[in-house]
Structure formats: C-alpha cells, structure tokens
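Appendix B. Raw example, untouched.
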Amino acid sequence: MLLVARKNLFSEWTRLVISVGGVALSVFLISLLLSLYRGWDEKVGGFVEHSNVDLWLGSEGAEDFLTAASLLPTEGKEAEQAKEYLNAYPSIDQWSPMIVRLMQGVRVDRISATEEKIGSKIDIHFIGFDPNTRLGGPIEVIEGRDTPGPGEVIIDEKLGDRHGIGIGDTLRAGGRDWTVVGKSRGGDFIATQTVFVSHAEAQAALRMQGATTFYVIKVRQGVDPAQLGAALEDQAARNEAPIVTHTREEFAKSTRDRVTSNVLPILFVVLGLAFIVGVSVAGLTIYTATIEKAREYGILKAVGFRNTYLYRVVFEQSAVTALLGFAVGIGLTVGIGPFASDYVPQFVLFTRWQDVLLVAGVTVVMALIAAYIPVRRLGAIDPVSVFKG
C-alpha cells in the first residue's frame, strides 16, 4: 500500500515539489511566528524576571515596567512615613528608590571643540538606581565599570551593538551628555534598551528632585513577597496614600502582556492564513493526483479492494507530503533564525521543543484535512464505469 502511495507521489515531481513546498511554507510561517513570539516574550519580561527586585511598589495605575506610569515622593511627610514603614518591616532586607523613564537619546561624536556629529535617535529606558543597594540596576555587567559616577552611564550591550556605541563614547539623553563607562546584559526590550545612571543623577537630569518612579524591595529569605505587598498596600490605604505592589512574577507578566496582548490578534490571523495555505496547496495537488488516477482506483475496486484500502493510500500520500513539508519548514526556521537576527535585531527567535511538537500536530491535522476531499471522491468512483467505452 505504501508503495502505491509513493508511486503516485513520486511519479510527478513537479506536483510533489508544489505540494511539499506549500506545506513547508505553511510550517515555516507557523513555526517562525511562534518562535518570534517566544523570543519577544522572553526578552520583554526578561529584565524584570531576572532582576534582584522581589517587590515593586508604585503609585496607583502602575501596571508594567515599559510604561512606568508611577510617581512617588522621596521627600516630605508622605515620603517620610513610607520610609518609616519600610524600615520597620523585619521581612524587608533592602529597599531603595528607582527611576524609570522612556525617552530618546542620541550618540554624540565630538569632531572638535566646537563641532559635533549627532547620530540617529535611539529609544531607551533611562534608569536611575541606588549604587549602594544596586536594586534594579544592571543584571550583569560584561565590560567596563559596574557603577556609574557623575555624568556616567552603563548601557545594554544590544544598544551598543545596534548603534555602534562603545566604552568612552558619549550618549546624550535627558538633556545631558553621558560618558559610557560600562556595558551590561539583560536589558534588551526589543524596541528599547536600558541605560543606567545613579538615582541622584537621574533625579537631577530629569528635574525629579523629591520624586521617584518606584520603590524596589528585596525581601529576606523565606518571606512571601505577595503577603508583604498586601500588608504595605493596606498600610498605605489606612494613611490615605494608596499604592500598588507587584511581585517579580506579576510585574514580568504584566510587562510581557503590554506588548504581546497587541501582537496576539495579528499572530492568530497570520497563523490561520498559513494553515489555510498549507491545506489548500496539499489538498489541491493530492485531489488532482487522485482524479488522474481514477481509472486505476476503479480497477482496484473492481478486483475486490475495499474503499478503506484506497482511503489509506490517499492518507499515506498526504502524510508523506506533510512529513516532507514539516522537515523542510522546521529546517528553514532553525537555519534562518540566527542569521536573521544579525540583520534585523528585533527579529529575536526562541524555538522550544514544545512548539516544534505543536507544529507537528498542526501538520498532522493539515494532512488529514487535505486528504478528506480526495477520499470522498474515491468513495464515489463506480468500478463498472471503468470498463465502459
């Protein structure tokens, strides 16, 4: 039976290439988009997830890191009360203020004392952290100094790679020029990258004296950050100074959702179209081959072969086509990924074996659907009509 299926498939190479190519294109698009989604999901929430902050404390409405829609005082009566509460909790190991601001910066090349060359605009997340606690600071410094001084900044390595900024170069952001003294890893948000200065420098540059974006907290071992956050919210509500708190996991998830929730509807539409393309091309070519072999199938039915046997022949043709298309499509995804990100930095792929299995299951469904119409046509063949005329 498998020999019959192979003969029908490989007797016409052009049709086989078209059929396999359609399935491969579909598998390639589905696996590529899934890998791209996973890559973005990993990058966007990665900084929060791998930071040394257990609990993020912000003003009402602060739901994610990317927008950083929070403003809290660091001076005045309300701020002093907050500091007393934070210092009074034995479950808190460390805490400090942190500034996060989404802005644009530019690379500045000084040609002479009076002349400079301004580079293209760069989207950055400008972060001011406390160098003493290092909470919310660079996850891993891979080059240069790990603590920025006055007028100094640490940039994410991806920012340096994409815009050619290295140690000793000048970055203009927040109305100031900053000398790059270090590079870090883990602060790439795809569309933006992190740059780090001290909290005091950020306050001065952004004219945020007496204010900050978040208070970030590291809890002692064995303490549940969620319970601590609930207690802090209750305390603040009693003092009519409402706040919101997010654990590391909650904040990472909400940060991911900020991006992926807008991408998912588009992703589903493209995945659906890719599936339809695969089913249509494979189904059409198998149906055409079935029609061309209708006389042979009629003879087989006339000599006693049951419909179930013929159905299996068609399903095996579809399965072989799907298998070849799956191998080519997955191979393209795995092969193209590393090279694509070199040319398009936002093209970040992360292929999981679970997703490969998911695509394999989709391909099986694709093969079954593609074989359905040819199978119905086989069932309608009349063996007697084969010998007429």
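End of appendix B.
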